[in-house]
Design a protein that fits this description.
- The structure holds two protein chains of two kinds.
- Helices cover about 0% and strands about 50% of the residues of chain A.
- In chain A, strands 2, 4, 5, 6, 9, 10 and 11 form a seven-stranded mixed beta sheet that branches. Chain A has a four-stranded antiparallel beta sheet with strand order 1-3-8-7, with no helix packed on it.
- Classes of the chains: A mainly beta, B mainly beta.
């Protein structure tokens, strides 16, 4: 079935780095943009980044621009989120998500991963 | 960024009640509006896309409507399994933005 599985979360000190991965299966990965959305404890949903289906275009939320880098490996059906210079306010569950429609920037997120927790704390 | 304002922030209703949540966009979003349900400790689940289209497999008691920049989400007959937080999300422009959520509980 269509599935996204995140990994790589953990506890990290402020200023350090962490790399999250999102493994996709059950759909034609190369036709879909992939997004990252995060949720701080007890808070709402915040969009983080997106990568175009071919990896050539990427967009970031202002809150992470210059610190986070999204990439994908279409040969392995994976998307990564490299998070540098982490701050306490980056503490959240990070979800990867695919859009309902292929070859689109934006739309409805119809499949989400289970999420991976990132805690930034000294 | 487009601001999405949801109201109320929480509500409590009885089983079988009709429940209506609202979402107001700060500008025209051309009905590019989705609704999600999130239960505690779980990922969000898409219920309604493009303001009024029911996602496949979602019970018909859920519905959405729109008028200009004002969007409604309704549950026609609240069930115990509907206890969750509901979020709206616009995708007219980057960045896609979410409302603050409405927590629905059973009275």
């Amino acid at each position: 079935q269509v599935q996204l599985v995140e990994s790589g979360g953990g506890v990290v000190q402020p200023g350090r780095s962490l790399r999250l991965s999102c493994a996709a299966s059950g759909f034609t990965f190369t036709r879909y943009a992939i997004h990252w959305v995060r949720q701080a404890p007890g808070k709402g949903l915040e969009w983080v980044a997106l990568i175009w289906y071919d990896g050539n275009d990427k967009y970031y939320a202002d809150s992470v621009k210059g610190r986070f880098t999204i990439s994908r490996d279409n040969s392995k059906n994976t998307v990564s989120l490299q998070m540098n210079s982490l701050r306490a306010e980056d503490t959240a569950v990070y979800y990867c998500a695919k859009l309902r429609g292929a070859v689109l920037w934006l739309g409805a997120f119809d499949v989400w991963g289970q999420g991976t927790m990132v805690t930034v704390s000294s | 960024d487009i601001q999405m304002t949801q109201s109320p922030s929480s509500l409590s209703a009885s089983v079988g009640d009709r429940v209506t949540l609202t979402c107001q966009a700060s500008q025209d979003i051309n009905y590019y509006l989705n609704w999600y349900q999130q239960k505690p400790g779980k990922a969000p689940k898409l219920l309604i896309y493009d303001a009024s289209n029911l996602e496949t497999g979602v019970p018909s008691r859920f519905s959405g409507s729109a008028s200009g920049t004002h969007f409604n989400f309704s549950i026609s007959s609240l069930q115990p399994e509907d206890v969750a937080t509901y979020y709206c999300q616009q995708y007219d422009n980057l960045p896609p933005t979410f409302g603050g959520g409405t927590k629905v509980e059973i009275k």
